[in-house]
From TrEMBL, chain A:
Name of the protein this chain belongs to: ABC transporter permease
Transmembrane spans: 20-41, 48-69, 81-100, 112-128, 140-167, 179-200
Main subcellular location of this protein, as a coarse class: membrane
InterPro entries reported in the protein's UniProt record: ABC_transp_perm/SBD, MetI-like, MetI-like_sf
Superkingdom in the source lineage: Bacteria
Matching Pfam families: BPD_transp_1
Membrane topology: Multi-pass membrane protein
Region forming the signal peptide: none
Organism: Cryobacterium shii
CDD domains: TM_PBP2
Residue ranges occupied by any ABC transmembrane type-1 domain in the UniProt entry: 15-201
UniProtKB/TrEMBL annotation, chain B:
Organism from which the protein derives: Cryobacterium shii
Protein name: ABC transporter permease
CDD domains in UniProt: TM_PBP2 (cd06261)
Assigned protein family: Belongs to the binding-protein-dependent transport system permease family.
Keywords: Membrane, Transmembrane, Transmembrane helix, Transport
A GO cellular component annotation in the UniProt record: plasma membrane
Pfam families: BPD_transp_1
Length: 228, 246
C-alpha cells in the first residue's frame, strides 16, 4: 500500500498514457468498421471476404502483431502509433462483424416501409438502419473498449508506456503492490470507458433507455393515446 | 520488405531448428502448454457450464465473473502470479487456465441455452431422465457453441503463451524477446510469423471441427439469429462477440 501512496503521480501519468493509447483505437475502429460492416451486410461476396479477413486478423496474437506491423507500415516498434494501429485493427476485426449483424437485424418490413415512404438508400442507412441497430453496435463497442484497454497493457513488454509498464516494472523489481495497482487501474479505466459508452448510448439512443417502469409505461400511454 | 527477407532467412535456416532453444523445441513447448492449459480450464469450465446451462441457475454469476475476468489484463495476471509462485512454468499455467475458463464456460452454457425449449420439453415428455436429456439432447445440440468457446479460448491461450515467455523461459515467444534484446529483427519477426502461423493453423482446425460436430439433421450449428428479436442485444449475443484479450 505504501508503494501506491508514494507513487500516485506515476500511476496517474501511466493512466494518461494508457488513455492516449486506448481511446483513439476505440473511436477509429468504430468509424472504420461502419462502412466495412455495411459493405459486408450488403453483398454476399464482400460479406465472405470481409468477415474472413477480419476473422483471421482477430486470430493474430497481439504481441506478434506489434512486431510485424513495423515491417509492413514502417512504424517504429516502440512508438504509440504502432500500438494504436494494432489495437485499431483488432477493434475493426471485432466491430465489423457486429456492424454487419446489427444491420442485418433490422426488420426487413421496416426497411421496405422506408423505401415505400421514399427514403433513398443513403437516408435509409442513416435514419433507419443505423439507429435501429444502435443497441447492437453499442454492445459491440463496449466489448471493443474493454478488450482494447486490456490489450494496450501488452505493449509494455516492448517498451511502449502504459499502465502495463507497472506490470513489467513491478515484476522486474519484485513490487507486488505495483502490479496490483496496475491491474486495478486498468480495470478502472475499462469500467470508466465502458460507463462513458453506456451514457453516450443513452444520449444517442434515447428510446432504449431501460426505464422498465416509467419510460415503458409512458410510451405505452402515448401509444394508447395515439391509437384511440 | 528487406525485413521480411531477414525473417524468412531466419525461419528457413536449419540451424535454428536444433538444440534445446531451437524452433522445434519451442514449438512443441508452445503447443503442449496450450493443450494442457486448455484441458485444465475445460475440466473446470465444461462441467460448470453444463450445470448452469441445464438448470439455468448461477447464470448471472457466470456472466459477471466472465465479464470481470475479461477486463483483467493478461500481462498483469501473468506477472503477479509469477511474483507469487516464482519464475517458471507454474505462473503461466495458473494465469492461462484462469483466462481460458470464461470463453469455455460461456460456450458450454450458451450452447444449452440456444436449444429450443420445445426440444427439451419433448425429451422430458417421452420419459427421458434429466441425465439422459443432458447426455443425448443438450450436449450434442450444444456442442457447436462449446467448440466455438474452445476455439476462442485456444486463440487466447496461444497468444498469452507468447507473452508468457516474458516470465518463463519457454515457447515461441522466447524468439520475440531474445530478438528484442539483441536487436535482431529477423529473429523477432521470424518468431512472430511462426506464432501467427500457429494461431492460423489452430483456427483452421477449429473451423473444420466446428462444422463436423453439428449433429445430422440440424440445419445449422450456429446460434440461430432471430432477426426480429436480435435488435435488442439478446443474452446469447454477449458471449458470441466477446472473447477479447490476446
Amino acid at each position: 500500500m505504501t508503494w501506491i501512496w508514494s507513487n500516485l503521480d506515476l500511476i496517474w501519468d501511466r493512466t494518461l498514457d494508457h488513455l492516449v493509447l486506448s481511446v483513439p483505437p476505440i473511436v477509429f475502429s468504430f468509424l472504420i468498421a461502419l462502412p466495412l460492416g455495411w459493405l459486408a451486410n450488403r453483398y454476399r461476396l464482400s460479406r465472405g471476404v470481409i468477415l474472413t479477413v477480419s476473422g483471421l486478423l482477430y486470430a493474430i496474437p497481439s504481441l506478434p502483431l506489434f512486431f510485424v506491423l513495423p515491417a509492413i507500415v514502417g512504424t517504429s516498434l516502440r512508438s504509440p502509433l504502432n500500438l494504436v494501429i494494432a489495437l485499431t485493427l483488432y477493434g475493426v476485426a471485432l466491430m465489423v462483424r457486429v456492424v454487419a449483424d446489427g444491420l442485418a437485424s433490422v426488420d426487413a418490413d421496416v426497411r421496405q416501409s422506408a423505401v415505400a415512404l421514399g427514403y433513398s438508400g443513403w437516408s435509409i442507412f442513416w435514419q433507419v438502419e443505423l439507429p435501429l441497430s444502435g443497441p447492437v453496435l453499442l454492445a459491440g463497442l463496449r466489448v471493443v473498449a474493454v478488450s482494447t484497454v486490456s490489450l494496450a497493457t501488452v505493449g509494455a513488454v516492448i517498451g511502449a508506456q502504459s499502465l502495463g509498464s507497472l506490470f513489467t516494472d513491478g515484476f522486474q523489481r519484485g513490487i507486488e503492490a505495483e502490479i496490483i495497482a496496475g491491474i486495478v487501474a486498468t480495470v478502472l479505466v475499462a469500467l470508466l470507458l465502458d460507463g462513458a459508452l453506456v451514457v453516450l448510448g443513452r444520449v444517442a439512443l434515447p428510446w432504449t433507455r431501460p426505464a422498465g417502469s416509467n419510460g415503458a409505461a409512458a410510451r405505452e400511454a402515448r401509444i394508447v393515446e395515439v391509437t384511440t | 520488405m528487406n525485413l521480411f527477407v531477414d525473417a524468412l532467412n531466419w525461419i528457413l535456416d536449419p540451424a535454428n531448428y536444433t538444440g534445446p532453444g531451437g524452433i522445434s523445441v519451442r514449438l512443441v513447448e508452445h503447443l503442449g502448454f496450450t493443450v494442457v492449459a486448455l484441458l485444465m480450464a475445460s475440466a473446470i469450465a465444461i462441467p460448470c457450464g453444463f450445470v448452469i446451462g441445464h438448470t439455468g441457475r448461477g447464470r448471472g454469476l457466470a456472466v459477471a465473473t466472465s465479464g470481470g475476468l475479461r477486463a483483467i489484463p493478461t500481462l498483469g495476471l501473468l506477472t503477479l502470479v509469477a511474483l507469487w509462485i516464482g519464475i517458471g512454468l507454474g505462473a503461466p499455467y495458473v494465469a492461462l487456465t484462469v483466462l481460458a475458463i470464461p470463453p469455455i464456460l460461456a460456450g458450454a452454457y450458451t450452447g444449452f441455452e440456444a436449444i429450443d425449449r420445445a426440444v427439451i420439453d419433448s425429451a422430458r415428455s417421452v420419459g427421458m431422465s434429466e441425465a439422459q436429456i443432458v447426455r443425448t439432447v443438450e450436449i450434442p445440440l450444444g456442442l457447436p457453441l462449446l467448440i466455438a468457446g474452445l476455439r476462442s479460448a485456444t486463440l487466447q491461450v496461444v497468444a498469452t503463451a507468447t507473452l508468457a515467455a516474458y516470465v518463463a523461459d519457454f515457447g515461441l515467444g522466447r524468439f520475440l524477446f531474445a530478438g528484442l534484446k539483441t536487436r535482431d529483427y529477423g529473429e523477432m519477426l521470424g518468431g512472430s510469423i511462426l506464432v501467427i502461423l500457429l494461431a492460423f493453423a489452430l483456427e483452421g482446425i477449429f473451423t473444420v471441427v466446428q462444422r463436423l460436430v453439428v449433429p445430422r439433421g440440424v440445419a445449422s450449428g450456429r446460434l440461430p439469429v432471430d432477426r426480429a428479436r436480435s435488435a435488442r442485444p439478446s443474452p446469447g449475443m454477449e458471449p458470441a462477440i466477446t472473447e477479447g484479450n490476446h
